[in-house]
Write a structure and sequence with these properties.
This protein is of the alpha/beta class. Helix content is about 30%, strand content about 20%. α10 links the parallel β10 and β11. α1 runs parallel beside α11 and α5 crosses α7. The mean pLDDT is about 95.
């Protein structure tokens, strides 16, 4: 049996926001028994207190892991975002504190794509407006403003995993697909690549957005872009709340230039179901509003729970950072006949020499050594043929520039 530096039962796992039970089961199956779960996000002050003792943290999208919270988490070794994005974590601060952050970028791809396809059909048929009238007792049986999606043009901004899934499903419905991405992408099926954002804006009967939140994408769809869309086109945002200027969208909905819209994400989202939700789009009966549920299917949440917990357990057990969004990538198989150390340090000259000198001074043979760096940090894993005690770790920690060091087994 592998002898780990810290008994799995002593490694504290905190899972927030109702993460699927698959995560709890996976940790338990791999020997992690100190697991605390909560169905909601915790208040920052409460979370700060808990993080003082936590080694592994799992969150979804409502927990904002700031630099201040990371400063409270002296034992924290990894953070898992059980979601596509990781913008709820201060990634740079986590990295310089030696904390890799993992996510599940593809596990809910199908769920988001299916929601978008449903919204395309609903918007083209004018269902949101007719539904609102029916709830008020009005029978609006009319074909005016109601269209089949067949032979209509779908414009996709962001042709990644979700964008391509939407493309495939839309073609199955008989739609013509045009897409734009800042990275050159191979078109799937009969999809046509546009050479500019303006081209896809002017072409689309329905426009759907599938991009991350970055400085480049923030407010990428504003007044100027909405003005270039076809009169009577529809807009869907299931990407990030800050990529569309909703105030500008409200203006174009009011003047009838945009015939309908669907929004699943918002610049400010409630932290819990009891908090109020306010958006400029609430007054429009031709707008579908959903509470960030693009990936919220049982199938997607079950898959996400397994994917992220697997990555965190693998890092905890072997040091593998494959799939980390903010960390140098190393993927290692366990080597149970050796003793394994990891050392995370500032990426400055001379640290590897000092690290090797510590091993050499004790006449320790290094069986294998793996190093990857980025602009800020270096991450090295060392397999040793010797049996070393705790005082050896203390010596490694004294090396100037050391961020974290740990004996895995």
């Amino acid at each position: 049996m592998t002898r780990y530096s810290l008994d799995r039962s002593k490694i504290k796992v905190l899972l927030l926001e109702g993460i699927h039970d698959n995560a709890h089961a996976y940790f338990k199956e791999h020997g992690y028994s100190s697991i605390e779960t909560h169905p909601v996000a915790l208040e920052p002050s409460v979370l700060a207190t808990k993080l003082a003792d936590v080694h592994i943290l799992g969150i979804r999208s409502r927990s904002d892991i700031t630099a201040e919270l990371i400063a409270c988490a002296r034992k924290l070794i990894t953070i898992g975002c059980f979601s596509i994005g990781t913008n709820q974590v201060d990634l740079d601060t986590a990295r310089i504190n030696g904390i890799p952050v993992f996510n599940a970028p593809y596990s809910n791809t199908r769920s988001v794509a299916e929601l978008v396809i449903a919204e395309i059909i609903m918007l083209m048929r004018g269902v949101p407006f007719k539904n609102a009238l029916a709830h008020k007792g009005k029978w609006h049986k009319s074909a005016k403003g109601s269209y089949e999606v067949r032979n209509k043009t779908l414009g996709i901004i962001g042709y990644g995993h979700i964008g391509t899934q939407v493309s495939i499903l839309a073609e199955g419905l008989g739609m013509r697909v045009y897409f734009f991405d800042i990275v050159k992408k191979l078109a799937i099926g009969n999809a046509v690549e546009c050479q500019s954002l303006d081209e896809v804006l002017k072409t689309a009967d329905v426009l759907t957005i599938h991009v991350p939140s970055t400085d480049l994408t923030r407010n990428m769809i504003g007044d100027a872009q909405l003005k270039k869309m076809k009169k009577g086109a529809c807009l869907i945002n299931a990407a990030r709340g800050d990529v569309v200027d909703y105030k500008a969208l409200a203006h174009y909905l009011e003047n009838g230039h945009i015939a309908g819209a669907a929004a699943d994400v918002f610049p400010e989202e409630p932290a819990s179901e009891t908090d109020p939700f306010i958006t400029e789009l609430q007054k429009f009966e031709n707008v579908i509003l959903t509470p960030h549920i693009g990936g919220s299917t049982l199938e997607a949440q079950a898959n996400i729970a397994l994917e992220v917990s697997h990555k965190m357990v693998k890092y905890s057990n072997t040091g593998s950072t494959l799939g980390a969004t903010n960390f140098p990538q190393i993927d290692l198989q366990p080597n149970e006949t050796k003793q394994r150390f990891l050392h995370i340090h500032k990426n400055i000259p001379g640290i590897m020499q000092q690290l090797n000198n510590v091993f050499a001074s004790r006449k320790i043979n290094i069986a294998a050594q793996y190093l990857q760096t980025d602009t800020a940090i270096g991450y090295v894993i060392i397999d040793s043929e010797s049996e070393l005690e705790q005082d050896f770790l203390d010596e490694l920690r004294k090396i100037p520039g050391t961020i974290k060091t740990r004996m895995l087994y």
